[in-house]
Structures are given as structure tokens and as C-alpha cells.
């Protein structure tokens, strides 16, 4: 079981992780924080569950995670700036990749738009949602599913999923330490993101699979015939590419996926 006291002993943040809500079992941490009132859902709230009965992924897929083995949690953010939110998602993925690299001493990359990969296998995914109060954004929710100590995956996922324990092949990871390290680093990166720090965007780009390379893209589910050179994300978090006709094209989050190398 996740040890909340142990997390609190390790966590040195000013606002992120306070309050911290722990559920042994909940439908989905994203759904839970979505249903809170604007007052209850304060900036910095983190909700973690040891087991989600209806964990959700991107594209209306479900997210299954072995009970008590991994990290499944959601953060509530109420940024002062409401632009560049897509970049914030990438900053989150980047922060997680940096922290994980420190723990496993291996290269962890971002697969656009918001998955983390080790080699060809998925290690973590982000589900980002917004809650509006009238027509005003009340909160931005970033849900993270990270495979930590799970040793076996459903046969349908076997070749596609991996955990930290499988990467380093020995022992189990302390989930409380991983989460504390991530929250501390993310709090600092969040401040840099709010200041529109260009260096942060450069760092994200360096972790992006396909950065600077010619890659095939799929647009709204259809693979484009010609490859494009990936120029990286801009300060809004949009993907910019150079196509075969030397035109620079910018894509938003939902539109495009980076497929294989050309
Ligand atoms: C994906 O890769 O499709 C995104 C997966 C996101 C899963 C996390 S687990 C915590 C939070 N609660 C959910 O229901 N989903 C996210």
C-alpha cells in the first residue's frame, strides 16, 4: 500500500501535493478531481490511488494498472496564464522523464504528444483534462499513469508496455520517493513554464522522439505519404515541422502523431 506518511517525509514543496488525497480504491483519480467543487479543487491538490476501477487513457481508452504496484495520480493546476497549456503537458512529461532517468540511468524519451517511452515500449502516459466554471477555465487536471513495479502486462500489451522494474531488472522502486522527486521537480519547472522560459522548451525538445529527424506523421489517423523534418515544439507546445515543400507547418495536440523514422 502507498505510504502517505513516507511521502510527506520526503516531500519538500511549497504548494504541490497539498492537499494530498489518497484512495486505496477509486474509479479514476482524474474523474475524482473533476467532480470536486471549484473550492475543493485547489491549486496543487494531488490525488493518488492504489487501484482505479475505471482508469482512463487518451482517446477514450481505458488505463489498467496492477493494484499497489504503480503510480496513478492526478494533479490539479490553476495557472495564472491560460495560454501555452499544451506546453505545460509537455513540460510535465519532460519532468517525469528527467526524474525517471535519475532512477534508472537510462534514456527515457517523450513520444508526442504525451507518452514516455523506453526504447519502443511505453512506460507512462498522461491524460490531460480541463474543467470550466461557466466559460472560465477553473482547473487543469494532469493525470499520470506510470508503470513502476509491475512485472507482467496483459498479453495484448506485452510488447508495448514496460515498467521501471523491468528496465533495471532488479528490485522494486520506492513509489513514495519517485512521486516526491517528481512533484518537487515539477513545482520548479511549473514556475519556469509560467515565466515562459525558452530554455525549458529547448530541454523538452531534446527529449522528443524524432526531434531534428525526418519522420512520418499521421494526421487525424491517416499516415501522410511524405516524411517531415521535426523542428520541435514551440512555446505554445505546438509541433512544428518542415514538409517536403519546405513549408513550416504547426500542429496542435489532437491532430497529429509522430510515427516512424523515414
Ligand atoms: C494514456 O497514455 O492513455 C494516458 C493514461 C493516463 C492514466 C492516468 S492514471 C491516473 C489518471 N487517472 C485516470 O483515470 N487516468 C490517468
Strand and helix map with partners:
Layout: H1 4-10, E1 20-26, H2 29-34, E2 46-52, E3 71-77, H3 85-104, E4 109-111, E5 115-118, E6 121-133, E7 136-146, H4 164-168, H5 175-194, H6 198-206, E8 214-219, E9 222-223, E10 228-233, E11 239-242, E12 248-251, E13 256-261
Parallel strand pairs: 1-2
Antiparallel strand pairs: 2-3, 3-7, 4-5, 5-6, 6-7, 8-9, 8-10, 8-13, 10-11, 11-12
Helix pairs in contact: 1-5, 3-5, 3-6
The structure holds biotin.
Number of helices: 6
The overall strand count is 13
Class by helix and strand content?
alpha+beta
Main β-sheet description: 7 strands, mixed
Structural descriptors:
single chain; 6 helices; globular; binds biotin; 262 residues; alpha+beta
Description:
This protein is an alpha+beta fold and 262 residues long. The chain contains six helices and 13 strands. Helix 1 crosses helix 5 (175-194), helix 3 runs antiparallel to helix 5 (175-194) and helix 3 packs across helix 6 (198-206). The N and C termini lie far apart (45 Å). Biotin binds at residues 28-30, 52, 55-58, 61, 63, 72-74, 115, 125-127, 143-145.
Offer a concise description of the structure.
By secondary structure, the protein is of the alpha+beta class. The chain has helices at residues 4-10, 29-34, 85-104, 164-168, 175-194, 198-206, and strands at 20-26, 46-52, 71-77, 109-111, 115-118, 121-133, 136-146, 214-219, 222-223, 228-233, 239-242, 248-251, 256-261. The chain is 26% helix and 31% strand.
